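> tool_call: predict_assembly(chains=two)
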Amino acid sequence: MDPVQDPDEDLVRRAGEGDRRAAAELVRRHTPIMVALAERMLRDRAEAEDVAQEVFLRVWRDAAKWKPGQARFSTWMHRVAMNLCLDRLRKPKSAPLDAAPEPIDPSASASRDLIERQRGAEVRAAVGDLPERQRAALVLCHFQELSNIEAASILDVSVEALESLLARGRRNLKAKLLERRSELLEGGGA
Amino acid sequence: MNVSIDRSRLFDLLEIYGADLNRWADDERRAAEALIEADDAEFAQALDEARMLDDVLGRDEVAPPSIALETRILNSAPTPNTSPIGERRSFFALTGGVLPRWASAAGMALALVGGVGVGYAQTSADTEQAYAEAVLSYVDQDWTAFSGAGEEGGQS
């Protein structure tokens, strides 16, 4: 098997040696990706940022020991982030304060951005309501754009099982979201 | 390689991966494109439905992380024994043990400028470099200011 080409390999090695510039570039590349994964899984920005920080603590701890060629570093980061999210989801906790949807401000000048955010929030809520494994599969494949092989490996399932999770997830979302598609897509240029 | 793909598998793939054929495996994408070129009405309708769901999902956008978060993360990164800490201490020593106010302000300004720059041109290599330097500058200034407190006490 050919070794995996990893665009982060050199940065990880240098960051492991204490190169701050390499560390800064890793942070710039991967923080948005980690926050996005965690926010979609947890539906909580503050928790998502905590997860991103925890992921990087492990990056800094393990960077010097990273052995390239087996998997891409970003895939490993996704696995760490997903496991941290699943751990948090399985811990009992009180309902988040922002669980209720934001009311829409009716004033035209102020409301456009809010309406956009509200529509995005509705989509995220629908994704968030999916069963945990379906959500994880959809987040990894659709939103994070990982390959099916990478996503299956992160979730410790076969590609066939991953496809089943994705199909059920998308069917659930279709039932929930497509009846309101014209409203959700309005003005979005999508 | 000419792989024969069951037609029903292509409909399944729309349900699994959606309408963006770039997300499909090469041989499956080619088979789907052949159906599209053949004006297969049933497949075209399924493709439209899958695309609608993709578009709706596209409304869910996550805000980019703040520079404060990225700075916190970078502050947790390791520094080697051989890092240019000596250079920073020399700079600190040159200032007489007091970090000039302009240094912190300049660090903050550079970090903010870097953040704004990233927002406008995230893919630019120049911006990447500027960003890294801005964040590093902020982190370095902050580190010097913190360590300076102890040194100042030692000098008195």
